[in-house]
Amino acid sequence: MSSVPLTRNFCIIAHVDHGKTTLSDRLLEYTNTVSHRVLTAQHLDSMDLERERGITIKSHPVTMTYPAKDGQIYKLNLMDTPGHVDFSYEVSRSLAACEGALLLIDAAQGVEAQTVANAHLAFAQKLKVIPVINKIDLPSANLELCLKQLEDILTISSEEAILASGKSGIGIVDILEAVVSRVPAPRWTDYPQPRALVFDSLYDSYRGVIAYARVFSGSYKAGDMMMLMNTGQRAEIKEVGVFTPKMMKVDVLGAGDVGYFVSSIKTPSEIKTGDTITLANKAATDMLPGYKEVRPMVFCGLYPVETSDYEKLKAALGRLQLNDAAFVYSSESSLALGFGFRCGFLGLLHMEIIQERVRREHDVDIISTYPSVVYHIVTHGGAIAQIDNPVLLPDPGTILEIREPTIKASIHIPNDSMGDILALVMEKRGVVEHTDTLDAHRVMLTCMLPLNEILVDFNDRLKSITHGYGSMDYELSDYLVSDLVKMEILVNNDPVDAFASIVHRDKAEGKGRALCEKLAEIIPPQMFKVAIQAAIGGKIIARDNVKEMRKDVTSKCYGGDISRKRKLLDKQKEGKKKMKQFGKVSIPSDAFIKVLKTN
């Protein structure tokens, strides 16, 4: 009998914090993939950041062996995926390499925004979805509600659900048996030529690029000449292996296997995620369905605090890009902050993670400018330009219209916070399209919002209004025309490019006033009065003053005629006036850091 039907490829998908990684730990423990002595909590989360924040950032494959009740021994390939909306591209990669998915639902919280989004991703890939109600041992667990939501929201029969607890190990055998019996055998194994799908890659300074791949047909071994179908590039395979969860070298990778390829390729940009690996002497004609190209949605400038760290920062970003296909960067310079890089991210959490990794793993102290999105600028000539940096916005006279990206958001909230959330959506220039009642206590709002408005504090405010019970998932929607303007901050009549931003005309005055006040507090007192102004085009919309230092020139005058004192004060005034004409205001770099951090 062929060994192919005895392989099962599945992943775990869920909302953030519904227990994916803990359940993975129990599966590793039960199948003796990792001995109890070595097993740590969140075993598959290898990054310090993943452990600290309790979130999964990268997907982690692992191969387990399971003797099933039917007497057969199965090879189970598991992908533990991230749950956060910013990393949904990681989830889509893992899904394409599987035939089944365990959909986890927290017994206390029920179906959340990301649960719905990930379930739809799995249905779109035609995977067999096995619902698992996790954390059933919690005192606040509400099984009846979860099963009802499963049928009403996700249209999955409640009879298919497995009750489990990743923490105490309840239902682990049921889950493994369900994977063996319900998940189909590996697909497309009868294709005549070898094909393997690249779902991730990792850069190793000693071995070069290591491609993580799922083999669909044929077999691969060390010494074979592989070919990447997208580019036609050829390279010799040096080693193949599987994950247990550490990399373990094997002789051959066959159909249905998930493993890694070490080849003679040394530059990561040559292996694209979603590419198909075939063999040069038996080349396949059709590529496997890959993934859509990942497009960064949020941009910001990253600058070293110490200018001497520029090369160090460049090397750090280069290394991070090797293992993160969605992160892009290019060099830029700013009058205020010197030389730095314009970086593109999938979302705010992705941006935060990259910045934190630069600080920790590469020991570079950095400062980031205000996050921005990609705008489409239509000029009077009919040309459309894409701009992600406010400094590059063309002259307002040449612009016909500015289009901004919008998102379609699904927001799950308790009933009692409905009014406050509607006010928040309106404040952020959003429109609620419709509301759906999920159960007696919760509703789901479907909203259209400008991406620019949710960048900074939307998620924090959603959580605080709903006392942590609100959740949001979003997808990019259309570009819509909006009344946007470029707001500049002038210090002593000189524009400071680091503080330029593109804002909606109605909100410009409030934002400008807040920024001027903040800068007036932070910039140290100068020898003369310095005006800090917010301007749109040539029009000043807000102003504040930096305090001036003042020497007491009248301290030597004891009594006497007042005109003597006035004469000295007038002389001081003239001197300050002259100084103002020639003087430059020096803004210390920590002032930029304070302002940009508070923003």
Question: What does it look like?
Answer:
This protein has 599 residues and is of the alpha+beta class. The protein has five domains: 4-182, Rossmann fold, CATH 3.40.50; 195-282, Elongation Factor Tu (Ef-tu), domain 3, CATH 2.40.30; 298-369, Elongation Factor G (Translational Gtpase), domain 3 (Alpha-Beta Plaits, 2-Layer Sandwich); 376-482, Alpha-Beta Plaits; 486-598, Alpha-Beta Plaits, CATH 3.30.70. The strands form six sheets. It has a six-stranded mixed beta sheet, sandwiched between helices.
Quick summary of this structure?
Helix content is 26%, strand content 33%. With 599 residues, the chain is of the alpha+beta class. Strands 2-3-1-4-5-6 form a six-stranded mixed beta sheet, sandwiched between helices.
Could you tell me the CATH topology label of the largest domain.
Answer: Rossmann fold
Q: Total strand count, please?
A: 31
> How many domains in all?
5
Q: Helix share of residues?
A: 25-40%
Strand content: 25-35%
The poorly predicted ranges are none
Radius of gyration, in Å, reads 29 Å
CATH hierarchy, class of the largest domain: Alpha Beta
Query: What would you call the shape?
Result: globular
* Structural class by secondary-structure content: alpha+beta
CATH architecture assignment name of the largest domain: 3-Layer(aba) Sandwich
Q: Describe the sheet with the most strands.
A: 6 strands, mixed
Mean pLDDT: 84
**Fourth CATH level, the homologous superfamily of the largest domain:** P-loop containing nucleotide triphosphate hydrolases
Count of individual helical segments: 13
Distance between the termini: 63 Å
What is the strand arrangement across the widest sheet? 2-3-1-4-5-6
